[in-house]
Amino acid sequence: MTSISGYPARPSVRVGAVLRLHIATSAPRFHVDFYRWGTTPHHAGHVEWPGCAVEPGTFDADWRWPAYEFLVPPEWRSGVYIAALSTEPASDTPPMDSREARILFVVTPSAPSGRKVLFKIPTFTYHAYNTAGGGSLYSAAQVTTLRPGGGVGGPVKGLPDPYDPASPRQTFAHWDAPFIAWMEENGIESDYCTDLDLHEGQYLHDEYRLLVSAGHDEYWSSEARRNVTAFRDSGGNIANFGANTCWWRVRVTPEGAGLHCDKFPPGATAATDPDSSYGCPDHWWESEPENSLLGVSYRNGGGHWNGPRTPLGFTVTDADHWLFSGTGLRTGDVIGRDDALVGYECDGAAYELDALGRPQPTGQDGTPKDFEILGIAPLPSDWNFAAREAMDSPRAATLGLYSANGTVFTAATTDWARLLATDPDVAAITRNVFARLS
Questions:
Q1: Three-class SS string for 245-278?
Q2: Cα first-last separation, the chain
Q3: CB atoms near residue 163 (< 10 Å)
Q4: Omega into 344 within 30° of 0, i.e. cis?
Q5: How far apart are CA 150 and CA 428, in angstroms?
Q6: Cys-Cys crosslink for 214: which of 104, 140, 241, 256, Cβ 3.0 to 4.6 Å?
Q7: Is 388 exposed, middle or buried (0-12, 13-18, 19+ CB in 10 A)?
Q8: Phi then psi dihedrals of residue 149, to 5 deg
Q9: pLDDT digits (tens, 9 = 90+) for 320-374
């Protein structure tokens, strides 16, 4: 049986620059078809190269597969691209999501484009869950990004999603792809970057008004967080249509090809000591709670990872807010309950009820005092909670926003993108965020 797989030398490339792909195959020649993701996959280019068979490597070291170079055409638009690898010419558009023979990379602008929205692709999180080579950041402290996987093209740790079994969680196809498709269907123009780009301090100075993330953007470096915080402080807006965001801190190797995260004490793993990651130095909340940037934290929310969950939606707390303009929603209405909008993981702010029974942030967890809780979903006891000790605040997902020069919005659930195409309230709120913040 002929095999083929590959990975990029780095997860992003500028328009007009050289893309370097590393590919191994048992075939004497192979084909690469490039597709840009949008409302549908758009065929952008084709190339053929001679093949070379090389053995796979391990999860923690560069696989050192043969390199092939491709000059990105100047007419390519910024976006997420999939390289579909095959040993025969493709007659039809192949499936974009696959556990082999696919390479994801992001094309970034060569110069400021004038667009106001920048979409962040969470390649750090993709690689944290990538198990190519026999390991991930859930079994070891360090992984290489120079191996297949990282959004597509590799095996992934995690349980299947009963609400969307077509693709694994922690892959591009699961949350980011449908969100981007919805953006383009609705005429929202965006440039694209990766978290490595933000780690290196690129693009946030290029006159963007809104930085967007969706789905599951769990692993952040200190440098990326510092640069995003500076973007907010200079008046840039942030829209986080996801959850469990900025939960783990990673250190990036100097060349950007490896990720390190101290999640477990020496000798311990998730398999040998499931509770050992609690009290770990690379939890953001222990040194610099992510609430201070995002307004919320997974520590005050939770997760339901296995099988169907009790359907939960957000109860609207202030229907007169601009966030709900044009929806027809009233205070007390619930958004997305029938389709289990809240989950599989969600974030919250510590809160208490005021004299009128409305949730108000306490600020004890680092959440800015002016954070407005505009939707709330108390969590059942059968969810998984990150905090092992008793909390003063009830566990709940809290949708909302605050301003600190720039405005920061959070949808507080990973599954926001799943309902965009089917729930008119979710779609209307999303349009309002883009209209107001971009």
A1: CCCEEEEECCCCCEEECCCCCCCCCCCCCCCCCC
A2: 50
A3: 15
A4: yes
A5: 31
A6: 241
A7: exposed
A8: 105, -170
A9: 999 999 999 999 999 999 999 999 999 999 999 999 999 999 999 999 999 999 9
